[in-house]
Amino acid sequence: MSLLQVDDPIEQSSATLKEQPISDHTSSNSTMSSRTANSCVQGRVEDMAASGLPPPTPFMNDAFDPFDRDFAAKRRKDGDVHCDCRTPAHADPGSSQQSMSHTRLRFRDRVRHFTWTWFTMTMATGGIANVLAHVPYQFPGLYALGCVFFILNIVLFAFNVAMISARFYLYPSTFKASFLHPTESLFIPASIISVGTILLNISEFGVGDKTGPWLTDTMIVLYWVYCAAAILGSSGIYLIMWSTQTFTISQMTPVWIFPAYPLLIVGPHASNLASKTSPSAALEIIIGGVVLQGIGFMVSLMIYSAFLYRLMTQKLPKESLRPGMFISVGPSGFTISGIVGMGQLVPQVVGADFMGDGVLAGQVTKIVANWAGLWLWGLAFWFFLVSVFAHWSPATRGTMRFAMPWYSFIFPNTALTTATFAIARAFGPHHHISTSQRTDLASASSQPGLPALNILGCVMTGLLVVAWTAVFAAMLRAVYLRQILWPQRQEDRDEGGWVKKDDDGEDGDEGDEEVVVEGEGGEGAKEGVRKVRTRRPSMLGRARERVLRGAEGGAGGNGNGRGIGDANGVQKRRGVEEVV
C-alpha cells in the first residue's frame, strides 16, 4: 500500500490521504476499485495502472497534479465526463497560463474564445468616425478621414460577425453559456451598440443630397428598428442577469451600466437623422429619441450610486478592471450630445400650435436642453478625471496587461468629446439655420461656438485617434502573444462551468453535491457535502478541490472526511463545507 502525502502551505492541518492498493501495475487488465465517483485522482491512477506505469510517487509533483487544468481538459476531451477538476485556490494561476502559452492550438480552438467583447472594437471605431463628423474646424481631408473610419468600422463589424458565428457553429454550447456567464454576458449589448454606431455614421456621412431621398427613408425605418432592438436587448440582458446571476457590491464595476448603452446612443442618432428629414418626421424621431435617451440615462444614473458606494467601501477596482471605469463617462456624454442636438432642432420642426404656442415652446425647449446639457457635462468630466487618475499607479508601474475592455479608453470618451462640441455650439454665438440647411451635414457643426471648448474638443479628438491606434496595435500584439483568443485569458474564463447545478439539472443559488467514498478505510466518512452560496468560478474551484480532499481523507481512514479550511470565509463541520 502506497502512502500519498500532500503538503499544502495554506491547509496546514491536512489529513493523510491513502490510496487503494494496486494489484498488478504491469498488467494491462489491472484496474483499481472505484472510490470517488467524481474524483480525477481515481481516474489518473486507473490510467496509470491500465498503461503499465509505476504507482505514484510519495509526493505529488507538477506532472501528476490531479488538479492541473491541462490534465482536466484532456480528461474531458477523452470522454471522462466526471472529471471537473479546478485549479486549487493556493495555486499560482500565472504558472498555469505560462505553460499554456507554449501550447499550440488550432485556428478553430482559438475561435472558441472569440467573445462578445470584440464588438467593443467596432464601437470604438464608429465612435471615432462620429467625433470626426462633429469637429467644428473643417480642413481638407477631415471628411475623408471620417469616411475611412466609417468604412473600416463596417469591415471590422463583418469580421466580428463572421468570427462569433463560427464560434457558435463549431461549439454550439458556447452560445447559451455566453448569455449565462457573469462577465461575458455584460458585453453582449456591444453588438447592438456596434449596429447603432454604423447607423449613426450613415446618417452623418451618407444621408444627404448626393444619395437622394431613398437613403433618408431607409434610415428612418432602420432608426425605429434599432430603437426596438435597443429596448429588447437592454431589458433582456438585465433580466437574464437578475434571474441567473448573483453579484456583490465588492464585484461592482461600471460595466454593469453596459447593457443600458444601446439606449444611450439613440439620442445622438436622433439628432443627426432629424436634421436631414422633413419637419413632421423629425419631430417623431426627436420624441422617440428623448424617451429612449431618458430610459438609458436614468438606469445608468441609478447604477452610478452603486458604483460610488463600491468605491467608498471597497476602494478602486483591480488594475485589470480599471479601464471599465471610463464606461461611467458615456451615459452623461451621449445624453448631452443627444439632448442638446435635439433641443436646437425643436424650434425648427414644431408647428405654430405645438403645446399652444409653437414658437415659445420651441425656444423654451432649446434653452432647457442647453442648460441641462451643461449640467451633465460637468458630471461627465468629473467621472473622466476620476477614471484618468485611477490609472496613474498601474500605468506608471507598467502592470496593465491588454484585454478587449481597453477599448473603454476610446468609446465613452468619444461621447465626452462630442458633448464638448455640443456645449460649445449651445453657448456660443448663433446664426439661424433654415429647414433647407438642415440637410447639410456641416450645418450644425459650422456654428462658431465657444473657442475654448472647441479647441479642447479638437485636442481630445487628436488624442482619441492616437489612443485608438495604440489600442488597436496592442490588440494585434496580444493576439500574436496569445494573451487573447486563448483559454482562460478572456472574459469566457471557466465558461460553462462557473455555475453549480442542482441534481435535477436546474440552476440554483444553492446546491448539494454528494461524494460517496467506498473502499477500505472509508467507513469513517461515507460522504462529503458542499453548499455553495456564490457563483464565482474561483470559489467553486476551491469548494470542489476541498471536497475531493476531504473525501479522500475519509477513505484513508481519518474517520471524519473533514476538508481543510482557510481564511476566506469558509466553515467546515464533519465534511460539510459552506462558502459564504
From TrEMBL:
The keyword Transmembrane helix applies. Gene3D superfamilies: Voltage-dependent anion channel. This is C4-dicarboxylate/malic acid transporter. Residues 551-566 have a biased composition (Gly residues). It is a multi-pass membrane protein. Coiled coil: none annotated. The chain crosses the membrane at residues 114-135, 141-164, 185-203, 223-241, 282-304, 325-346, 374-392, 404-427, 453-480. It is found in: Membrane. One of its GO terms (cellular component) is membrane. Keywords: Membrane, Transmembrane, Transmembrane helix. The keyword Cytoplasm does not apply. Residues 23-37 have a biased composition (Low complexity). One of its GO terms (molecular function) is malate transmembrane transporter activity. Residues 492-503 have a biased composition (Basic and acidic residues). It comes from Pseudovirgaria hyperparasitica. InterPro entries: Mae1, SLAC1/Mae1/Ssu1/TehA, Voltage-dep_anion_channel_sf. It comes from the Eukaryota. It holds the Pfam family SLAC1.
